[in-house]
Amino acid sequence: MSHPNPVSPIDLHMHSLASDGTMTPTDLMQRVHAAGVRVMALTDHDNTAGLAEARVQAAALDIQLVPGVEVSSEWSSQGIHIVGLFIDPANNILQGGLSRIMAFRDWRALEIGRLLEGAGIPDAEAGARAMAGSRMVGRSHFSRWLVREGYCADGNEAFGKYLGRGCKAYVPSDWIPMTEAVGWINAAGGSAVLAHPGRYKLSGTRLRVLLTEFQDAGGIGLEVCSGSQAAGDREHLGRLARQLGMVGSVGSDFHGPDVGHAAIGHLPPLPDGVEPVWDRAGIHLH
């Protein structure tokens, strides 16, 4: 059944310049307000540096801001992302864990820059850092810099030639185990939700195993509706949520107006019978 996507009043997965988004938290909140979204989560990768600025603007615009983070993690040699919602960003356990990931990201950026220099592309690390505008430098920043400087025609070429697995400047990830990431989120009073499960290209059996072990670790939900997975995944993921007794979340994974994924709030509703993660937090939409 087709579901047109009128603007959802809630969007629980977005990024700002504090990670790999292209907008400041202030500008992002203004765009959220203009889109008609009333409840949003800022879920920058592996840090919470944008939340304080976002909180000020959210209050001015009467938007309910859900403090969040998207933690880079690993399960059974598979890279996965875990969204932590309703977190206390001042929690020492969470911040101690995130600092470990950020230290790895710092090292990886240096290594990517070194490999690109060896491939005849100087100053890439400094260029990517300048483009990032914050401490968190990821492969997307290198990709954008390579395109801007004329080394690649677009992001696909940047990853296919330099940054993707097996390419000249590929540096393997060393993310923390899923169980640790969930533990950090729970220690901070948050709700751990598996981000965009449809992106992992797992078989039905392996996805069910992942979700079961995610639950065993203390995770409670999954993104049933996501702007960075196929729209057709919605029904299948909704069935899994119901069968496993997990809550569902919705998130555009918005990174910026000129970046892929869905626009802010352009999300279908959760399938019937899937409990929303925001209900457990006492947020009731009317």
Automatic annotation (TrEMBL):
Q: Which InterPro entries match?
A: PHP_dom, PHP_domain, Pol/His_phosphatase_N, Pol/histidinol_Pase-like
Q: Name the SUPFAM superfamilies for this protein.
A: PHP domain-like
Q: Which domain of life is it from?
A: Bacteria
Query: One Pfam family of this protein, by short name?
Result: PHP
- Give the Polymerase/histidinol phosphatase N-terminal domain ranges: 10-75
- GO terms, molecular function: 5'-3' DNA exonuclease activity; 5'-3' RNA exonuclease activity
Fetch the PANTHER family from UniProt: EXONUCLEASE, POLYMERASE_HISTIDINOL PHOSPHATASE N-TERMINAL DOMAIN-CONTAINING PROTEIN
The protein depicted here goes by the name Protein TrpH
Native organism: Acidithiobacillus ferrivorans
